[in-house]
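Query structure, 730 tokens:
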């Protein structure tokens, strides 16, 4: 064939190929970016806009987000919040999108899988007290598997809002008060959900939320103004998000709050300049529920169309349930106020995540029976392990615990939390069922046998004291009282702030009443936040904070009380002496007059500090050893400390490494956690823990522009009460 003929025939050949070959976006082996661009080029404006729309499907279980149950699904919709555990339903709805829409773009099914799907693990705040990052990651992988096999592709988790005000109900959903801890756990959660490959059979997409500054809501009230200074933004709230993006989080959720006046859901600086341009996030941002409409009451948008324009151009690519993008984007594009380029960029991001999840190639999920999806023994065992490691022994006077160590004990299990399995699940309990949960009473009965008696004593709140007499009677016949107090599940979580951190008065009175029986009391506290235990802790010999420990809570408590397990949890959040002492986080900036300026009517210092937690053994720390007392900007120092288990039972000890920078160009916190490590130590054994200090990472701090400064000078490294000093030199 001569050259002329080839040239003449080429377009025809191409066309012939085009007729037979599937479009590039349907080719499994084509690069994802090529598939995205090919699909984008085929889409109408309406089809594009619909990819930015998220609606709901199934009955809403969240009392804060009430809307009509959706029955008919527009097959062009980008995403659904999917509230059914049934893979068959999902496949049915998905079939509508894949088979009945012109281009067959699959739907993305999202759901709040926060601390488990059906196997409910401890709430995230509890998980963070385990300091066992591998367990946290593994729990997210279990949740992802159960969710994926039930038709969910995407979870709105992890929440990595550094939370320092225990009045805020959502303190329960994150990993405590420390930025480094939230960064480490958040990245682990992302890896757990997403696995090694987002398209894996058991992987779901993660969503970092709520970006950013939400936990600073004024006074701990939900949905309120938050005065986030540029310094606080970068120093406290951004680090976990940056770590989550680096870990590969597929998506991010924009928050309800504002950042010193500019709402997080209409903030071009955080959403575009930082997230996408500086950090290179190439997935998409979904608004929080209604946070685009909220721009109107927040007073930055006159109406919904304005809100649409602001959120979309700032960098929110998907509208969670407001339907504002569906209603207003087409006209804004038509008028030229939203460019086609911006619309394409938004849709490109959504499609990219769908391709990465493998939705175009495998839009349906296998329909396995419940028992092949849920509550597998290994997964339940993991829930028990994580619950054991999350529980924090706050007090243990005269070694009251463990109970099995002494003579046989008759236990009286008293209190409104003893049989409250719902409370053990906590808020955002996915498709968890109270009937799956082992109550505290059942767990203790199973471990301690027929010696266990029970009286409820009183309700969680109210004024009914008629159960007190029975409680006292049961207590007086026992050797030890296990008093189970705390919060109902609904007292923490979204829109569940509390002005007081105390137990309700009726529960404090029950504690006093039971104490009168004269028996040793083990106080077991279940709650979604730190509580003010200043009045009840002194009534008890031992205090165990079990948080909301999930379905294995009862068995895990029995493991701890019996001594089958040695407690190893440490607080990831400070316990203040009441709400008046808020905020009480450990890493406050250095004060002008150290040791002065407290309240006249409260002792200084918190009730239980960050990292507090006892064990049944005793650890002895050696001195900190440094490989050098000087380091250059590009050098490193290796620090190590030897820890000896001086008791007679094995234990897991977490070493926390804090850095202090006493003099810098801006005042630095008293100390900051830079590294932590949990390791097992046999009885009588020693372990050397190490921390490699990398100056650019561990000694620098961000300025108000987010860029890190590294200033030469003296630094202190602290582990428990040990201190070592070294210098950073030019
Ligand atoms: C919450 C989010 C949640 C969303 C969807 C909102 O009200 O703030 O955390 O992911 O609802 O349920």
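Result returned for the query:
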């Amino acid at each position: 064939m001569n050259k002329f003929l080839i040239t003449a025939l080429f377009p025809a050949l191409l066309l012939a190929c085009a007729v037979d070959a599937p479009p590039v976006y349907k080719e499994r082996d084509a690069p994802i970016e090529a598939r995205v661009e090919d699909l984008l080029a085929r889409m109408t404006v309406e089809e594009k806009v619909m990819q930015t729309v998220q609606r709901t499907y199934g009955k809403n279980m969240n009392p804060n987000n009430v809307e009509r149950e959706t029955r008919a699904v527009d097959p062009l919709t980008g995403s659904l919040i999917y509230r059914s555990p049934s893979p068959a339903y999902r496949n049915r709805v998905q079939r509508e999108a894949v088979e009945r829409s012109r281009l067959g773009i699959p739907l993305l099914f999202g759901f709040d899988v926060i601390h488990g799907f059906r196997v409910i693990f401890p709430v995230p705040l509890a998980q963070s007290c385990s300091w066992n990052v591998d367990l946290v990651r593994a729990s997210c992988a279990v949740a992802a598997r159960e969710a994926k096999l039930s038709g969910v592709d995407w979870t709105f988790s992890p929440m990595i809002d550094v939370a320092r005000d225990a009045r805020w109900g959502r303190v329960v959903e994150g990993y405590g008060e420390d930025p480094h801890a939230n960064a480490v756990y958040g990245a682990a959660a992302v890896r757990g959900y997403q696995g090694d490959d987002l398209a894996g059979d058991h992987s779901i997409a993660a969503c970092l939320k709520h970006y950013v500054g939400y936990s600073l809501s004024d006074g701990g009230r939900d949905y309120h103004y938050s005065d986030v200074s540029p310094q606080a933004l970068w120093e406290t709230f951004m680090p976990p998000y940056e770590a989550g993006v680096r870990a590969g989080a597929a998506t991010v959720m924009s928050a309800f709050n504002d950042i010193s006046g500019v709402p997080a859901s209409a903030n071009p600086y955080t959403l575009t300049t930082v997230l996408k341009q500086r950090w290179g996030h190439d997935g998409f941002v979904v608004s929080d529920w209604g946070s685009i409409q909220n721009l109107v009451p927040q007073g930055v948008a006159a109406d919904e169309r304005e809100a649409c324009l602001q959120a979309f151009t700032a960098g929110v690519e998907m509208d969670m349930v407001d339907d504002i993008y569906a209603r207003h984007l087409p006209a804004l594009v038509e008028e030229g106020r939203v460019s086609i380029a911006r619309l394409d960029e938004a849709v490109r991001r959504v499609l990219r995540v769908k391709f990465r999840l493998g939705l175009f190639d495998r839009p349906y999920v296998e329909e396995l029976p419940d028992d092949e999806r849920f509550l597998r023994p290994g997964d339940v065992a993991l829930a028990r392990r994580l619950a054991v490691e999350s529980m924090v022994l706050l007090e243990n006077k005269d070694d009251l615990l463990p109970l099995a160590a002494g003579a046989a004990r008759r236990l009286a299990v008293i209190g409104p939390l003893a049989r409250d399995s719902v409370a053990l699940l906590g808020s955002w309990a996915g498709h968890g069922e109270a009937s799956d949960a082992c109550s505290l009473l059942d767990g203790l009965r199973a471990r301690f046998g027929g010696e266990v008696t029970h009286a409820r004593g009183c309700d969680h709140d109210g004024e009914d004291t008629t159960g007190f007499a029975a409680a006292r009677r049961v207590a007086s016949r026992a050797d030890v009282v296990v008093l189970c107090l705390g919060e109902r599940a609904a007292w923490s979580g979204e829109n569940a702030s509390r002005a007081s951190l105390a137990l309700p008065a009726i529960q404090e009175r029950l504690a006093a009443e039971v104490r009168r029986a004269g028996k040793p009391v083990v106080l077991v506290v279940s709650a979604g936040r730190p509580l003010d235990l200043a009045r009840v802790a002194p009534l008890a010999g031992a205090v165990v904070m079990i948080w909301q420990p999930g379905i294995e809570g009862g068995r895990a408590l029995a493991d701890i009380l019996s001594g089958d397990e040695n407690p190893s949890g440490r607080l990831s959040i400070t316990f203040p002496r009441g709400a008046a002492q808020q905020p009480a986080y450990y890493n406050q900036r250095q004060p002008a007059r150290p040791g002065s300026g407290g309240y006249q009517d409260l002792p200084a210092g918190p009730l239980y500090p960050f990292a507090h937690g006892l064990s049944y053994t005793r650890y002895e720390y050696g001195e900190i050893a440094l490989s050098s007392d000087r380091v250059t900007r590009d050098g490193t120092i290796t620090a190590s400390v030897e820890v000896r288990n001086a008791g007679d039972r094995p234990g897991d000890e977490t070493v926390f490494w804090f850095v202090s920078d006493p003099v810098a160009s801006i005042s630095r916190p008293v100390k900051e956690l830079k590294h932590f490590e949990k390791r097992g130590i046999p009885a009588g054994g020693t372990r050397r823990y190490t921390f490699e200090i990398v100056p650019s990472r561990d000694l620098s701090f961000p300025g108000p522009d987010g860029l890190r400064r590294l200033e030469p000078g003296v630094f202190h490294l602290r582990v428990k009460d040990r201190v070592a000093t070294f210098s950073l030199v030019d």
